[in-house]
Amino acid sequence: MAEDSGEKSFDATPHRRQQAREKGQVAYSQDLGSAVLLLIAAGLLRLMGSTVVESATDLLIRNLGEVDSLTGDRELLLTQLQRAIGGIGLAVLPILFLLMLAAAGSTVLQIGFLFVPDRLAPDFSRLNPLSGVQRIVSMQGVARLGFGLLKVAIVASVAGAAIYARWDQILLSSSLEIGQIAMMLIDVTIATLLWVGGALLTLALFDFAFQKWKHEQDLKMTHQEIKEEMKNMQGDPQIIARRRQVQRQMVMNRMSGAVPQADVVVTNPTELAVAIKYEHGVMAAPVVVAKGAGVLAQRIRRLALENNIPIVERKPLAQLLYKEVDVNHPIPDGSYAAVAEVLAYVYQLKGKKIPGMKRAA
Fold first, then answer.
1. Same domain as 155, residue 50
2. Are 114 and 24 in contact (CB under 8 A)?
3. pLDDT tens digits, residue range 118-134?
4. First to last CA, the chain
5. Which of 229, 257, 291 is the last residue of a domain?
6. Contact, 350 vs 312, CB < 8 A?
7. Residue ranges of the chain with pLDDT lower than 70?
8. Going by C-beta distance under 8 Å and a sequence separation of 6 or more, which residues neighbour residue 64?
């Protein structure tokens, strides 16, 4: 059987997933981030490229237009060149900033916000040539190489198809001016990038789905691993059972001494039992000396019968006292009248004088 053979046939527990995440083991596709970045870059170039080119051209003309007058002054030439480069950098800065946000966003969408300090430490084992060769010749390395070759073939085909679709336009470019040729080449390049980015995005989605599936398979657990995790999180089941047994015995012993001293036991009638005691002149209000549900309620009723303690069925009162009053605590003011009525009934049964009770302050 799978449980006996140690086969990983059980889904990972939340604790196992959290441990893997803390170690940086998450489903992630580098191709997906690259494809999204390429598409956004092509889109930004289509939307803002002409503006950036015009700004750069204007800066170059304004700063380096009169080259002949600058050749004699080297420092002035360098100053003008720095101004031109700085201006072009400022013009390109919005595109670079948006690309940075896109790169961060594609990663966050895949794995969420994750910080793993251990990954920042150098891992010298990756510098071992033997380990590198083993990774390359492994089945996973061969599969990655095959997928890479397939990706190159598909991208080359898509790029060729995109260029072929504009082949007539490219052939007619010989009759255009230099500026028009440049704009046409930029347009063809951006269109090709969009087609290539779309193909890469499709492949990346398949890669991400595969990485997600592989991650789930790697996280799967054996029956023994689940048992060990439960033991580590909750403790040894035998110790827990023993602890509960000792606690139950302590409760039983406390009941054995408290219930015989009670004046009445209020029941539900079978699910709950609450033992109440009142000493006139000593207690300001009746006190709950024992309570229980299920087995403990049966124990309280049995002790009451053995010690001739009256048992009175009052369902709402028993539920209220069981929920709201702790053992060895007085009853709340809201239940005072109902408890007084029960005690009065019990004293009449015993033929005793009904003591006066003062409301607890």
1. yes
2. yes
3. 655 666 555 666 665 56
4. 67
5. 229
6. no
7. 1-6, 49-50, 52-54, 56-74, 76-77, 80-81, 84, 115-141, 178-179, 233-240, 352-361
8. 70, 80, 81, 84
Distance, CA of 118 to chain centre: 19
pLDDT of residue 219: 86
In angstroms, rounded to a whole number, what is the distance separating the alpha carbons of residues 314 and 339? 10
Note whether 52 and 114 are same-domain residues: yes
Asked if residue 212 and residue 106 are part of one domain, the reply reads yes
98 shares its domain with 167:
yes
Q: Are residues 183 and 261 in the same domain?
A: no
Q: What is the pLDDT of residue 129?
A: 65
Number of Cβ atoms within 10 Å of the Cβ of 251: 15
Where residue 19 falls (left for φ over 0; alpha for ψ -120 to 50; beta otherwise) is alpha
pLDDT at position 6 is: 60
Residue 235 lies in a domain: no
Cα-based torsion angle of the residue sequence 159, 164, 169, 170 in order, rounded to the nearest 10 degrees:
70
CATH number at residue 244: 3.40.1690.10
Cβ contacts of residue 106 below 8 Å, gap of 6+?
A: 32, 33, 36, 37
What is the structure's pLDDT at 281? 77
pLDDT value of residue 295:
85
| Range of the structural domain that residue 255 is part of | 240-350
Number of domains in the chain: 2
pLDDT of residue 62: 65
